[in-house]
Amino acid sequence: MLNSLSGRFLILTVAFVMLAEVLIFVPSVARFREDYLLTRLERAQIASLVLLADDMIDPALEAELLENADVFNVVLQRDEMRELVLSSPPPWPVNQNFDLRMSTPYYLMRDAIIRLVSPEPQVIRVIGQPVRMGGELIEVTMITTDLRAAMIDYGKNIAILSAVISAITASLLFLAVRFLMVRPIRDVVGNMKAYAQSPEDTRRIIRPHTGLTELHEAEVALQTLQTELTHALKQKERLAQLGGAVARISHDLRNILTTAQLFADRMESSQDPMVKRVGPKLMNSISRAVSLCENTLAFGKAEEPAPRMERIELAGLVDDIIASERLASGAHPLSFAEDVPAGLVLRADPEQLYRVLSNLVRNARQAIVATGKEGEIALSARDEEDQWVIQVHDTGPGLPLSTRENLFQPFSGSNRKGGAGLGLAISAELIKGHGGELSLEKTDESGTSFRIVLPKKVEVSLSSSTSQWIR
């Protein structure tokens, strides 16, 4: 109960109401004390008027007047003359003087607190202004016993009233918070628990319904989060199913390609010039296909294998890619340009780099062919101080905005009908495995450019506490 939001709100409400009552209590008691003293002055003035009306008054009547006024002496100043009108001997000397004509709120509150905490009775002199123009000044002497008792009784009444007000206010606020805040929050928490039991079930996604602005915003945010998570889980499940299917297909395809590789080996002994020229390229293509199938099977078991870093001549790799894509373009008016220094050697996994460049060039070819217009694909590379930079540029139509936003996300980056959207995602992952980066450099109506950066320095861990950089 006390650890709940409504319970703590109840405690805070009672505490704050009591604090407010305490802040009101001191001025209230000070005001009560002032009214009490003014009442004694007024009674004393009435008693003195009786004496002024008849100079000869019985001593017993005088004592009764003083007793009714609850004072010992009454001094009245009229026409600039002070006169002791009524008098009886006080039990003790006068301890303090209080002039109500010049009292400020601060002094009134201070004197009230002092009187409450001082249990010893005292004789005090009180000076005030007579009512109804009854003179210039009136002064009485009185004892503080009854004054303090009246102030205590008044304080008790204030405390009881404050407690009742606090209890009623706290109860109303407790009920209001419980129904307006706690119950909607519990509904949200209940929805989160139900959703956690089966996040794939779209029926469990929260539907915002509360009227509270802040809580409604929280429900909308939760609905968005649950929707995205449900879609992500469904996509993950599809990916898992697709991975199993691809692994089975790759297994069978690898066996088929292995057989084709055995027959292709026999072509090397052929004396046909065309076979001698095409044979090595065919062997390379089949070897890469077998390697791709094996890597796909390994990917289905864990993740993309780590690159086997070798020093490779980039120009030969680019020649193979351009030759394959030129054949695939058929009769379409598509030209290829190559700007790779003949002696450029870089460190990379040759199969993985081939896959990346082949994927970029193939995407560019398909985009240009789809337009039915002429186009050009250019591959360039340069050797910088700390990195190798490879660029693939085409004169195609450019990428649409919807594709750019999720370009390197699986199943999201394809703008080709029938495309799976895996090529760029896999390519980015392969380059990242080299410690590099694949990025979209530009895309507009004039074409698209991709940029690959491969670092020359690679950090190699030697132990748990040391490492070195190699080139």
From TrEMBL:
Classification via Gene3D superfamilies: 1.10.287.130, Histidine kinase-like ATPase, C-terminal domain (3.30.565.10)
Domain Histidine kinase: 248-458
Keywords noted in UniProt: ATP-binding, Cell membrane, Coiled coil, Kinase, Membrane, Nucleotide-binding, Phosphoprotein, Transferase, Transmembrane, Transmembrane helix
Key word Transferase present: yes
Superkingdom of source: Bacteria
Residues in coiled coil: 215-242
GO MF annotation terms: kinase activity
Pfam families found in the cross-reference section: HATPase_c, HisKA
Subcellular location as annotated: Cell membrane
InterPro entries: 2C_sensor_his_kinase (IPR050980), HATPase_C_sf (IPR036890), HATPase_dom (IPR003594), His_kinase_dom (IPR005467), HisK_dim/P_dom (IPR003661), HisK_dim/P_sf (IPR036097), Sig_transdc_His_kin-like_C (IPR004358)
Membrane topology: Multi-pass membrane protein
TM regions (residue ranges): 6-30, 158-181
Catalytic activity: ATP + protein L-histidine = ADP + protein N-phospho-L-histidine
Enzyme Commission designation: 2.7.13.3
Name listed for the protein in its UniProt record: histidine kinase
Organism, scientific name: Aliiroseovarius salicola
